[in-house]
Amino acid sequence: MRLLSPGATPPADVNKYLLLHEHEHQVITIRRHYVVLLPWAAAAVGGLLVAITIGAMPHANRSEQLAVWLLTAFLFLEFLLTVGRWSVWYFVVTSQRLLIISGLSRHKVAMWPLDALKGMTIERTFYSRFFNYGSLIVQSRTFIDYLPYPEQLYLEICKLLYPSRLLPDD
């Protein structure tokens, strides 16, 4: 999780969607957890191993080899597109809003004002606890998957939602 202190600048992809007064306060900017890339990476590497194995067979049919290499190329292309989508996806928390900035060819910005936020849930499976990521469910209907450090993120959002309730009594 990247917590920006006052005066620090968020990434350019995020900075252009922040309001002027949001630059003065701390901003949390995170990407999805890298584990989102693993299925396509494994598929691409597996396809490459199959293509090399079939290519090494002495009696392999040329059309079968071509089909396997084309499938491998497709898997690598899909992996590269997934990396591209991952690199431009941001979850941003400011003092007033939650933002999701995404889109490789078409930028999309989803926003929830913090003062209108009625409910928020963190969900973690055994696998996600092992790799330290989780899902944030906003307003009981929007799932934001593969967020790293979900408990810390949850507490930071709660501090913004309920600042007076979290201060110790004097």
Describe this structure in words.
- The chain is an alpha+beta fold and 170 residues long.
- The chain has 2 domains: 2-32 and 91-164, PH-domain like; 37-84.
- The chain is built from 5 helices and 8 strands.
- The strands form 2 sheets. A 5-stranded antiparallel β-sheet has the order 1-2-3-4-5.
- β4 and β5 (108-113) form a beta hairpin.
- The protein is elongated, with a radius of gyration of 21 Å.
- The protein starts with a strand and ends in a 9-residue tail after the last helix.
- The mean pLDDT is 86.
Q: What's the structural domain tally? A: 2
Shape: elongated
| Percent range of helical residues | 25-40%
Query: From the helix content, strand content and strand pairing, which structural class follows?
Result: alpha+beta
Can you summarize the main beta sheet? 5 strands, antiparallel
Q: How many runs of DSSP E, i.e. beta strands?
A: 8
How far is it from the N-terminal to the C-terminal residue, by CA? 31 Å
Radius of gyration: 21 Å
CATH architecture of the largest domain: Roll
* Arrangement of strands in the largest sheet: 1-2-3-4-5
CATH topology of the largest domain: PH-domain like
Q: Which class of the largest domain in CATH terms?
A: Mainly Beta
Alpha plus pi helix count: 5
Could you state the order of secondary-structure elements as H and E? EHEHHEEEEHEEH
Strand percentage lies at: 15-25%
> Roughly what is the average pLDDT, rounded to an integer?
86
Low-confidence stretches: none
